[in-house]
């Protein structure tokens, strides 16, 4: 299969070459490894050295930076930045407009809401439980209410 090479020049005048992904048309940098079963939106970039597993979805305007790894069946929302060397685990979900810092690790199956920022080098390895509703946590008199297990 012949791949059309495209060049992009940034504000500083640096020219980078990309090819279009067959599923979605996203721009894939030289040396990036993106499975053909993944969907990469036409307005997204996967930089050189990055790896994207099978069955992933990368939303519009997202940028997967150098040497980042996106696990199988992970979902990356719209306008998400995944920093250099960051890892997003299998079946993880990163909500739109989120930022994952360089070297951060998002574990398998973790779901991050939109507009989330993960600091460089941070590790989020388990799913967080949503907070209990106010009515189940405390009463108006300040005493805690405890529910019996069924």
Could you name the key traits of this structure?
150 residues; mainly beta; 8-stranded mixed beta sheet; disordered C terminus
Poorly predicted parts? 133-150
- SSE string: EEEEEEEEEEEEEEEEEEEH
Largest sheet: 8 strands, mixed
How far apart the termini lie comes to 59 Å
The percent range for helix content is under 10%
Radius of gyration: 19 Å
* Beta-strand content estimate: 25-35%
Structural class: mainly beta
Beta-strand segment tally: 19
Write up what this structure looks like.
The protein is an all-beta fold and 150 residues long. It has one helix at 134-137; strands at 5-9, 15-20, 27-29, 33-34, 39-40, 45-46, 51-52, 57-58, 63-64, 69-70, 75-76, 81-82, 87-88, 93-94, 99-100, 105-106, 111-112, 117-118, 123-124.
Topology record:
Layout: E1 5-9, E2 15-20, E3 27-29, E4 33-34, E5 39-40, E6 45-46, E7 51-52, E8 57-58, E9 63-64, E10 69-70, E11 75-76, E12 81-82, E13 87-88, E14 93-94, E15 99-100, E16 105-106, E17 111-112, E18 117-118, E19 123-124, H1 134-137
What's this, in brief?
With 150 residues, the protein is an all-beta fold. It is 3% helix and 31% strand.
């Amino acid at each position: 299969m012949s791949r059309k090479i495209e060049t992009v020049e940034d504000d500083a005048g640096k020219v980078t070459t990309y090819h279009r992904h067959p599923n979605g048309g996203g721009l894939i940098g030289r040396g990036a490894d993106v499975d053909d079963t993944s969907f990469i939106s036409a307005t997204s970039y996967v930089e050189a050295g990055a790896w994207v597993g099978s069955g992933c979805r990368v939303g519009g305007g997202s940028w997967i930076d150098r040497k980042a790894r996106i696990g199988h069946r992970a979902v990356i929302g719209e306008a998400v930045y995944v920093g250099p060397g960051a890892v997003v685990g299998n079946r993880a979900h990163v909500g739109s407009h989120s930022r994952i810092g360089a070297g951060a690790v998002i574990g398998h199956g973790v779901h991050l809401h939109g507009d989330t920022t993960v600091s460089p080098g941070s590790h989020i390895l388990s799913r967080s439980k949503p907070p209990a509703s106010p009515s189940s946590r405390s009463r108006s008199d300040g005493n805690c209410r405890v529910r019996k297990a069924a």
